Amino acid sequence: MIIKYQKLDFFLRALEPIYLPPYKGSTFRGGFGNAFKKVICVFRNKDCRDCPIVRECPYAYIFETPAPQGPAVFNMDKYETIPHPFVIEPPEETRPLYEPGSEISFVLILIGKAIDYLPYFIMAFEYLGELGIGKGRGRYELVKVEITGEPVYDGKTRILKPPAHRMIEVPERDFSDQPYELGGEESGCGDEEELQLELKTPVRIKYQREFATKLEFHILITNLMRRLALLNFYHGENKEPEWNHKKLIERARTVRLEKNEAKWSDWERYSHRQKVRMKLGGLVGRVVYRGQISGFMPMLKAGEIFHLGKGTSFGLGKYQIVDSKNE
Fold first, then answer.
1. Sequence-ordered list of residues with C-beta below 8 angstroms from that of 225, at least 6 positions apart, any chain
2. Residues 150, 107: Cα–Cα separation, whole Å
3. Residue 38: is its pLDDT beyond 60?
4. Which among 37-51, 123-137, 267-281 has the top mean pLDDT?
5. What is the crossing angle of helices 118-131 and 25-40, to 10°?
6. Residue 73 φ/ψ, nearest 5 degrees
7. Residue 18's pLDDT band (cuts 50, 70, 90)
8. DSSP assignment of 23-51
9. How far is CA 31 from the centre of its chain?
10. Which of 121, 207, 222, 250 has its CA 20 to 30 Å from the CA of residue 295?
């Protein structure tokens, strides 16, 4: 499968004091969703499921992606939701206060068809600046948007230069015997390699109906395969991958969790939509795997971009592949 994406850097400037929690992803995601609906929605008091233009509405597509007619895809049950085609990576800093004039930056990752809606995302974040964000609703202005240092949008001129999308390929055939460069050396499928992952934000994965408190490699791969497949189906090529899921999971089970430094970390967020405070948590820290890993690397590299587990739209499930030779 080939998944299209864009990774954009947003730069804001505080106009008033802005108070934000240590983990800022939920605040940005909640405020953005509210602003997006106010900018786009024609029938603000109508449930998306009852809206006559639900299949043409940018808000409905981004936040309430309608399921296609027919049988369930990937055995999704009625309680599962279609993954959002975006990820917000909030500032990693934990500072609580941004004085007027301070810069705030975050990363927005758009996936597949959501790339076409970039102008709406920019409009929504500009409007969120007018509404205010955080405790006390401090206002900000959107200064610019960049991709790897190249300007895409200027807040003063309001000129948007639509960038070309990027692509990442994850082979759908049995890729477990393919060599891949890991840590500067090419490894074959018969050799054992070491893989270190740094779980940067809480990783919330359900395994056998419980949240995993130990991230075994086969649990990671099973979840990652499902996420990539669903993103590609609903927001990309609209087809199921040709993976031999059973064989790949069996191979993943042979990879050992050599070292586990990941700990469960709890945090809370308030859901304005559900009107309830939610206690969330996940695994944070370093895990080290050993085994025949090279064939899984394309999938793991994709996961670095698109995150893993639940809560990805507000930045959860972010991990980084660590090159131990460069530490």
1. 241, 243, 245, 248, 299
2. 14
3. yes
4. 123-137
5. 110
6. -90, 135
7. very high
8. S-HHHHHHHHHHHHHHHH-SSTTS-GGG-
9. 17
10. 207
Show the CA angle centred on residue 67, arms to residues 65 and 70, nearest 5°.
170
Cβ atoms of 60 and 54 within 8 Å: the answer is: yes
Token pair listed for 211: 């949240």
Task: Specify the higher pLDDT residue, 33 or 76.
Answer: 33
130 contacts 155 by C-beta, under 8 angstroms: no
H, E, C per residue of 204-255: CCEECCEECCCCCHHHHHHHHHHHHHHHHHHHCCCCCCCCCHHHHHHHHHCC
| Two tokens, residue 20 | 């934000």
Containing 138, the helix (H) or strand (E) segment is: none
Residues 6+ apart with CB under 8 A from 66: 54, 55, 60
Among 3.30.70.1900, 3.40.250.10, 3.40.50.1000, 3.40.50.11030, name the CATH number for the domain at 172-326.
3.30.70.1900
Could you list the beta-strand ranges (E) of 148-192. Answer: 150-154, 159-160, 166-169, 180-182, 185-187
Q: How far apart are CA 223 and CA 172, in angstroms?
A: 16
What residue type is 102 in one-letter code? Answer: S
Instruction: Report d(CA 134, CA 118) in Å as an integer.
Output: 24
The sign of the CA dihedral 60, 80, 277, 266 is negative
The domain limits of the chain are 2-166, 172-326
